[in-house]
């Protein structure tokens, strides 16, 4: 049995791919289309063979393998894929299937959206992070140096299929990484979801919990698809988190989820400094983050560099750094311009405990 997300902008089906609409879609709407399967080195080995052999109509699909990892989420790789599209004679009526984690769905969607002013594409996320966040919402893009997703566009897939079977292919660290975005969704809109997540065995995550988390994001996106207002709440943890991730981009020392988790904690302390949230709420956020996610090492001598990276964040619209900040678990306010002194104090509180 599969469940459909209640959304006007995001067509998402959660559950077994084999009983989903995927096969009928391939056999009907895209029967005569050329298919391009975009994977990375991991999903080429662990996921693509299953997809190609289990579903009729994919035997002749062109398979394009992206190099694995966030440092490869760059325009140069997109250029190579577009050249391959031209070689394969891909036309606007053809179909791109993105099979992978957040890097694959972000890049694959971006590649499809720009080629010949738009190819149709389907997302089949294979990581928890991609299922609950990256593959849903229509954001596509690539990085520009240390700056995350600086080049991109809004482009919604035809449909996204989230099958928990792919989570069994993940190493433990990647599974934990995806939890950060689920906790973020809970911090934005649902204390009940937060409580449920704290009791969840993420090694045996079920479709219902995936559904609940995706539905939170889909509802927000429906109300603000191009991030003019409410959708900005989804940036909770990302102003600080993306700066940390960008700082360590070359080493790829920390996962996206780890950076976002600790970014949420820093931003909770910023909110505390601004008297926007009760200390008891921050204590609960800190308890969960410290329990669920490995500690990030960030020395005080790089704090100014981290803040400098925040200043170039795409969410800013003034000389001050723009945040979405929690007022309690289950509620967030957006467009909060914060003075650097409060950011620095929060960074010291979390990372300078000597």
Describe it.
This protein has 354 residues and is of the alpha/beta class. 45% of the residues lie in helices and 18% in strands. The chain has helices at residues 22-27, 41-46, 48-54, 75-88, 102-114, 128-134, 172-189, 191-198, 207-223, 238-247, 256-273, 279-292, 303-311, 340-351, and strands at 2-4, 12-15, 35-40, 62-66, 95-100, 120-125, 139-144, 147-154, 160-162, 321-328, 331-338. Helix 5 (102-114) crosses helix 6 (128-134), helix 7 (172-189) runs antiparallel to helix 8 and helix 10 packs across helix 11. The protein is globular and about 60 Å long. It starts with a strand and ends with a helix. The mean pLDDT is 94.
Q: Quickly count the helices.
A: 14
Mean pLDDT: 94
Uncertain stretches: none
CA-to-CA gap between the ends?
52 Å
The strand order across the widest sheet is 4-3-5-6
Determine the fraction of residues in helical runs and give it as a percent range.
Answer: 40-55%
Question: Count the strands?
Answer: 11
Q: Which outline best applies?
A: globular
Produce a short descriptive summary.
The protein is α/β, with parallel strands linked by helices and 354 residues long. The protein is built from 14 helices and eleven strands.
């Amino acid at each position: 049995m599969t469940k459909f997300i209640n959304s006007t902008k995001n067509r998402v089906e959660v559950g077994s791919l084999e009983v989903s609409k995927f096969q009928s879609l391939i056999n009907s709407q895209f029967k005569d289309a050329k298919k391009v399967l975009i994977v990375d080195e991991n999903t080429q080995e662990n996921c693509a063979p299953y997809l190609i052999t289990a579903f009729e109509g994919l035997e002749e699909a062109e398979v394009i393998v992206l190099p694995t990892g966030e440092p490869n989420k760059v325009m140069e790789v997109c250029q190579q894929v577009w050249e391959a599209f031209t070689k394969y004679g891909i036309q606007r009526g053809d179909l791109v299937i993105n099979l992978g984690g957040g890097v694959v769905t972000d890049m694959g969607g971006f590649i499809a959206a720009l080629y010949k002013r738009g190819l149709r594409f389907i997302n089949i996320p294979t990581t928890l992070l991609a299922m609950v966040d990256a593959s849903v919402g229509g954001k596509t893009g690539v990085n520009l140096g240390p700056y995350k997703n600086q080049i991109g566009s809004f482009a919604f897939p035809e449909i996204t299929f989230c099958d928990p079977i792919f989570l069994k292919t993940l190493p433990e660290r990647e599974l934990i990484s995806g939890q950060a975005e689920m906790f973020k969704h809970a911090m934005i809109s649902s204390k009940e979801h937060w409580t449920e997540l704290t009791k969840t065995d993420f090694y045996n995550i079920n479709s219902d919990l995936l559904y609940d988390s995706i539905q939170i994001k889909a509802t927000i996106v429906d109300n603000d698809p191009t991030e003019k207002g409410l959708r900005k709440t989804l940036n909770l943890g990302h102003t600080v988190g993306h700066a940390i991730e960008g700082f360590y981009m070359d080493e790829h020392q920390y996962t996206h989820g780890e950076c976002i988790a600790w970014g949420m904690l820093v931003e909770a302390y910023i909110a505390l400094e601004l008297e926007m949230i009760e200390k008891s709420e921050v204590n609960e956020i800190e308890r969960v983050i410290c329990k669920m996610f490995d500690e990030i090492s960030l020395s005080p001598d790089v704090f100014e560099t981290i803040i400098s990276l925040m200043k170039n964040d795409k969410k800013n619209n003034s000389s001050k750094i723009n945040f979405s900040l929690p007022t309690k678990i289950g509620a967030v306010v957006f467009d909060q311009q914060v003075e650097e002194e409060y950011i620095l104090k929060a960074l010291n509180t979390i990372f300078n405990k000597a």
